Amino acid sequence: MSLEARLGLLIAFVVLVSVALTAWLARIDAPPAHATLFALLILLPLSLLALRRVMRPITRYLRVLRDGVAGFRDGDYSLSIAVDRHDELGELATLYNHIGDVLRSERQELFQRELLLDTVIQTTPWALVLTNAQGAVLYANASARQLFHEGRKMEGLRFPALLEQAPETLREAAQAEADGLYTIAGGEEPEVYHVTHRRFMLNTREHHLHLFKRLTRELNRQELESWKKVIRVISHELNNSLAPIASMAHSGRLLAEQGRTDKLNLVFDTIDDRAQRLKGFLEDYARFAKLPRPRLENVEWTPFLAGLQAAVRVGLSEPPPTRPGRFDAAQIQQVLINLIKNAHESGSAAEAVTLTVRDEGGAFVLRVQDRGPGMSETVLANALLPFYSTKSEGTGLGLTLCREIVEAHEGRLVLANREGGGLEVRLILPA
């Protein structure tokens, strides 16, 4: 029976009792005041008893529903209601139980997803550190704990304080705003990391996510593949040049035997052209393979940069340092020329290609910046590999040669995309 029907029966019962009591009082000729008082004494308890009987299950169900909803608020979905009614309260209790089942199921599924996600994050070789706006570590996976805190827990510690114990390059990579490649000295060989930074809002609070991907093994594998590729490239180029040379030499011999010397000049010109092309091709690779050791000397920046600007168009964003640098001027100039030409070829406006030289105490930092499209993460991760090129006619040795020259000076070459578009290449040379 519905609640509306129950309340209707209660009202009908009270009305019938009132009518019967009024008729009885009229029959016994009771005084009006006494009749009214007597009717109240009879009707009031009866009405309260009937109302209590009707409202008791309603109150009980509402109390249970209140406790259950409070449990939902606190994340407790364990309370269910035994349904023994077929009215609106029973329907409400059934709906409540269904909502609880759905929430329990979703929480269990969410727990399983979180467990899976945590397992993936903890076992990934990427070092992941999540901090708040004040630099406190909110989460760090196993790789991050190993990289920054000797495998110990990092949550609750300040990330800048942990970075003070890290190598200088790793500290620079973690504090940088832009993504980039960083070579970190230490151990048996330098480690190469691709570093990514992301900022996002969570619960109206700013969070920072730092990702450090170790690329050393991948770079070594790519380098081996690159050397295999260069063998194929050299073999292909040799065959392309030697086959025509052999063919033209045979044709020249036949022409000489036939006395047709007027055709020999064409044969010799073709052989010379192929030989010169092969010579130039081999010289490019030999220059990379036989890079001479740098001849270090004190270099004044003003005349050095003037000579650079005479060779290639580039703007200086600020005055050069007064303290001289110490490097091989010819080699570093070649590096800068290659980088500036790449900046112009990126599609950047010519006036947006700039060079900055700063004296930062322990090192000179040279920045070549442009406003081209920048590099994708794939290109950024492979740009310094030998023979990796996105140009159809490129040899893939330009940036690799630049890196070899800078590292021969015990410096570092860092590539990073700029905010607002473009690429920044940093040459870090020891002072």
TrEMBL record:
Reaction catalysed? ATP + protein L-histidine = ADP + protein N-phospho-L-histidine
Q: Which residues form a coiled coil?
A: none
Cellular localisation = Membrane
Q: Which residues form the HAMP domain?
A: 56-108
| Residue span, Histidine kinase domain | 233-431
Q: Which Gene3D superfamilies match?
A: 1.10.287.130, 6.10.340.10, Histidine kinase-like ATPase, C-terminal domain
Q: Could you mention a single GO BP entry for this protein? A: osmosensory signaling via phosphorelay pathway
**PROSITE patterns reported for this sequence:** HAMP, HIS_KIN
User: Which controlled-vocabulary keywords does the entry list?
Assistant: ATP-binding, Kinase, Membrane, Nucleotide-binding, Phosphoprotein, Transferase, Transmembrane, Transmembrane helix, Two-component regulatory system
The residues that cross the membrane are: 7-26, 32-51
List cellular component terms (GO). Answer: membrane
A single Gene Ontology MF term assigned here is: phosphorelay sensor kinase activity
Its Enzyme Commission number(s) read 2.7.13.3
Instruction: Give the principal location in a single coarse category.
Output: membrane
Q: Which named protein is this?
A: histidine kinase
